[in-house]
Write a structure and sequence with these properties.
about 85% helix, 5 helices, mainly alpha, about 100 residues
Amino acid sequence: MFVTVKERTKEIGIRKAVGASRRAVLAQFLIESVLVCIAAGACGVAFSLGITAIINQIIPAVLATGTVLLAFGICVLVGVSFGVVPAWNAARLNPIDALRYG
């Protein structure tokens, strides 16, 4: 997420210059972070289901629903926790400095 904020510094500056609040910028990057983690979690669950189906042909294997939900919840928690600092930094950017960047 740090790289995303760095790459989109001018975009953040433009949004803030036309009136976007700190809260709106913070929400944008937090939501983006969570959505990326949800997509990655969904890919992980699909991969796990496929591997479980293959392993189930050799030995009995069961993938419990609770385990899947726990893994998905941890994935979202990681997305929020590792997205807070970059989102906070993006929200605090000065529009003039952001437009001058790069």
